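Sorry, can you check?
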Amino acid sequence: MQISERLDLTFSALADPTRRAILARLATGEASVQELSEPFEMSQPAISKHLKVLERAGLISVDIDAQRRPRRLEPKRLEEAVDWIERYREIFEQNYLRLDALLEELQTKPTKRKRKKD
């Protein structure tokens, strides 16, 4: 899968507040579907649908532990998204630095006023 496709899946998955809350919970440690569904007023099948989106995006993985199937955060995909955003942050920062330099240059230059010839 191309990085562009992975970013599409990642940002699409992150667009939903429930999925972001699930990721925040998994950042503190692995959890079962039941544990993940506790803070939400929705059914476990609804939570399972959110988990499938997160799994398809590669943001979480499933372990098989006897009768439990705990979910775990996979930070690599989030790191790809952070790297993508960081590139644009650096571009914007360079643009602002150039703008600051231009404004400073304009403020320090003596202004040339044209006088109308009589």
